[in-house]
Amino acid sequence: MALVVKKFGGSSVATTEKMKNIVNRVLAEKGEDDNIVIVVSAMGDTTDNLLELAAEIGSDPSRRELDMLLSTGEQISIALLAMAFQEKGCPSISLTGFQAGIRTNSVYSKAKIISIDPVRIERELKAGKLVVVAGFQGITTDQDITTLGRGGSDTTAVALAGALKADVCEIYTDVDGVYSADPRVVQTAKKMSEITYNEMLEMARLGAGVMQPRSVEMGKHYNVPIHVRSTFTTQPGTIIREVYTMEEREFIIRGVAHDNNVAKVAVLGVPDKPGIAYLLFSELAKANIDVDMIVQSIRNSDQNINDIVFTVSKTEAAKTRIIVEEIAKQLGCFGVDVDENVAKVSVVGAGMLGNPGIAANMFGALGEAGINIEVISTSEISISCLVRADIVKQAVSAIHQRFFPNE
Amino acid sequence: MALVVKKFGGSSVATTEKMKNIVNRVLAEKGEDDNIVIVVSAMGDTTDNLLELAAEIGSDPSRRELDMLLSTGEQISIALLAMAFQEKGCPSISLTGFQAGIRTNSVYSKAKIISIDPVRIERELKAGKLVVVAGFQGITTDQDITTLGRGGSDTTAVALAGALKADVCEIYTDVDGVYSADPRVVQTAKKMSEITYNEMLEMARLGAGVMQPRSVEMGKHYNVPIHVRSTFTTQPGTIIREVYTMEEREFIIRGVAHDNNVAKVAVLGVPDKPGIAYLLFSELAKANIDVDMIVQSIRNSDQNINDIVFTVSKTEAAKTRIIVEEIAKQLGCFGVDVDENVAKVSVVGAGMLGNPGIAANMFGALGEAGINIEVISTSEISISCLVRADIVKQAVSAIHQRFFPNE
User: pTM (2 decimals)?
Assistant: First the structure.
């Protein structure tokens, strides 16, 4: 007897036909005594259609009313999916976010879950029902409806799995697991059967798009295994959990991630005085710009002048340039250079802590492929290199071949 | 300073353009200190579209899930309408049935309101907001979403007006008030500026379709004046309330109603024994068939044989025939005759109690027009006659001309 939370996204419930497919699959795989909770998103285009209606009213709708509007999308999905289970003779009940006891703060359109009271879900499970819960939504202590923002339905599923002490949370998606590199870039990329929360978080941070960091963090917090698997096949996918089973330690490196949404910002000729870095990065923080890969190098030690190089996401490059140029002028720097033709390639693996050769191996692979490294940064479980954008795929392949040699 | 509840139906909020029209009208008519609560239905076709999705899943969906599904329709309307008020600079907030404190029993798809806790609405009004509430829906003590069935949004509006002790509940509709007869039948029909709850209930029972009896009863219970008025004009409509103001006593008769959805059932040659009527009508009651206008006449006093004639709605004529023929056979009656070519014409007016000439006047008007009366029945505030269906319009005109002579 297992308790399983399964999450299906908007494309999996885009039509009533697709809903029937989910029902058939879930019932075929369900053990007699299994307790199943299903979390779903809004049907295919529903959210876009609702946003279009809101746009007809005005360009800047209140977030509270927008959440009131958008949360209907999941409510439609859960009602129809529960009907579809009932139609197949499976007792089922749908629950909205508030009925499922999902309490959030009141930051509309990107609310955070603050607690889950699973008493209603548990009662329905005990009564032998399959429970269908609306993803992406919750309720404030003031009984206002909120939505959870990006990756919200995954977060709902993992948080519910945690609160219910589920055996596993299955996230059904259009890829069949987590790969050692993007399979579109590296054809020999291997599907990992297991990966740790921290590795998955680092992979996500460094550009792997399979899971939002938010739900992985939720899984780590509750220690819920997350099974990322395909909607289209019944093959097992990748299980994200705290530790590996023995046989999974084969590779020290879990994967090679890359990210094209990177811009390099160089502030040239910065006077070497205390407080300069603070001034620069606190201004960027105030503007809500995430900064990555900070490197400071000495340009001229006699004149006490440095260069500061860092990366931001490409989408924030323009905003960053304006802020940094203003500060550079104040400080009397030589100039500011923003380069959008860069990309980041990273290796991730909890095992690298005790293996000092990883960095050398990575740099060696890039060197042999004739690829120049512009900036290097490291974390406890990853090493990242900035390279020219047009050769990032070669960089990924070269590194992947080094750490995951073809059989 | 007035507290007004206004209800707009699905056709009034069918598009975002129409919502903007409502906003303009409400804001133009609103006094500075007025408190406004607006109750809305689902946008135009939303409910039909949702029902279509449910039909794709199965032919007999659970009522609970259907209510979960359909209640999204009003939720979409309230969010968009609140946005539209905000867009015009009017602070506004939308509330679902559960947020508005509308508690119902758990008879899904035709739930009854059991109580309203208006604390949230009052708080928002006090904060200077215009409150937009979802009609047609409520919540059970178990936090399950219900819908109120036919005329549900009107009922929501009147019940809220009662709970909030509103000055008036305005029902916006596609007719501009309650008329002394159906204006499509009698061109000289007069719009009544006032009518009592009981008269309106009797008019509704006897075929006038402007308001569902349910919300009129709610208004009577809470003693809330209901103003039935047009969405398309700013002219005042008809106010339904307990008593008239002085100058409204001009006409003893409030209106002439007619109903084509009538069938006459005659049970011929019924033995005159105790318990026969009970047997007949209790069987019909068990089958949930409403019986109206019962007349028993003596066919042959020597043989103790009677005829029993009554009416049912035309839509239940076939079902009635089966039940009645079975009983007639058991009792050894002569036969059963079902006649669908009849219609009912009625006069309604609380004033007729103290005016014995009304019935004579009505029969006289019909007689002068050469119209035969088949069955007569009376209540405290109405007199009804059954006539041939093809001349019901002449009957209405003749009676109307008698009681409301053209100026």
Answer: 0.85
